[in-house]
Write a structure and sequence with these properties.
The complex is a heterodimer of chains A (258) and B (222).
Chain A lengths: L3 E12 L2 E12 L3 E5 L6 H8 L7 E6 L2 E2 L2 E4 L2 E4 L2 H8 L2 E4 L11 H12 L4 H14 L15 H13 L5 E5 L7 H17 L3 E5 L3 H7 L2 E6 L2 E6 L1 H6 L4 H12 L2
Parallel strand pairs in A: 3-10, 3-11, 8-9, 9-10
Antiparallel strand pairs in A: 1-2, 1-4, 4-5, 6-7, 11-12
Helix pairs in contact in A: 3-4, 3-5, 4-5, 5-6
Chain B lengths: L5 H41 L4 H15 L3 H11 L9 H26 L3 H9 L4 H31 L11 H12 L3 H33 L2
Helix pairs in contact in B: 1-2, 1-4, 1-6, 1-7, 1-8, 2-4, 3-4, 4-6, 6-8, 7-8
The chains are: A alpha/beta (258), B mainly alpha (222).
Chain lengths: 258, 222
Amino acid sequence: MTRPKIRFERVTKRYGALTVLDGLDFEVAEGEVVTVIGPSGSGKTTVLRVLMTLEGIQDGVIWVSGEPLNMMHSKGGLVPASKAHIRKIRSRIGMVFQNFNLFPHMTALENCIEAPIQSLGLSKAEAVERAMELLTMVGLTDKRDQYPSQLSGGQQQRVAIARALAMRPETILFDEPTSALDPEMVGEVLSVIRELAAEHSYTILMVTHQMGFAREISDRVCFFDGGKIVEQGPPDDIFGNPQNPRLQQFLSKVLEAR
Amino acid sequence: MMDWRWDFTFDVVLPRLWEAAGITVYATVVSFAFALVGGLILMLLKMSAFKPISFVASEVIEFIRGTPLLVQIFFLFFVLPQVGITLPPLTTGIMAIAIYNSALTAEVYRAGLQAVPRGQWEAAVALNLSPYRTFRKIIIPQSLPPIVPALGNYLIAIFKETPLLSFVAVGEIMHASKLIGSEYYRFNEAVTIAGIFFLVMSLVSAALVRAAENYVKRSILH
């Protein structure tokens, strides 16, 4: 295994008295596709949110490509990171949200070029060229001038994926990317993610309830419960031969529901 | 039947009220402009991460909102000179109206910002946009549609608050009609015309506010 792209070192996240991540140790290798599953409230989405720095952590260190994210090196030790440091490290990570979170006052194309122009310093022409490649990849070139409200949920999520990729992240986080979609639109979004996973140039960390999809694309599946990884391994082991009773119970519930 | 004299209306009332109407409009526009800026400052102070500042700003807003405008006008008019600050009545009046409405517009700004879903902020973080860019390109455009009509309503409200300045002898339209009344012992014409003036100006401002609202909606939301 290559050095970890993402490493959580004894990461603790609390909301008041509620401990969501409990001294979590967790690694994702470069190019690895890891899926996180678990009951709601297990802390699985929190893993993505603290990694994207949408929320802070109370204890521990998060490492991205060997560099600390929430801390920084100073005089031989680690001190809490400055905003500039966080912005620098965070730029290697992109995120796709459950509710798309497209900017409603911008067209599909404008959504995809705003941040590359502002944060990466691309010229408008470069940003448009890159955005059009990505919109082609997600099959939405003809929607470039449409506003999010004019797009279906599946189309919005595909634009959101293109928007995240336009920032050239090394790692992409997917937070339940199909949970807000009508069933007939799930397929088009999954096929885009499938394509990204197959390329293996991206490190992918995904939270999903699509068990079949998780089994199909993941290199590794982690089962979260109570803020910890209770069991992890290759998808065939996790789904085919679960060891932990809580995982067995969880799987029987979600598979029954289908 | 009301006693109404047209010659008096045209020879005395209209010329004097016309002049006074200019002061009313001036007081309205200037205090509204200050209230727009003042509200923004109060809102930013209230949302400050530094707790004491945010606490003081909230209390100031509560205090201003919790006392009548007329009391504040009197307070500034009679108390400021005692601490050595003597300003013309019009300036004092504009100040009072501007301060009072700053507390109200601060809440408008705050509500407008809070109307932007949290996911928009999160997307901006995920795309590594700077705080300045996030405000300028993402948050402000989306908070304008609720903010603009609410601010417009305060413009109309301020306009209708200016007669309070007649209590401190600012020569606006209400004061002018009272003066005409006491000089000639005739109130009908002056007070009626003043009322019609306010009605017409309210309708005009309401139309302007609606136009601004539509413009913002058209240019920002699709």
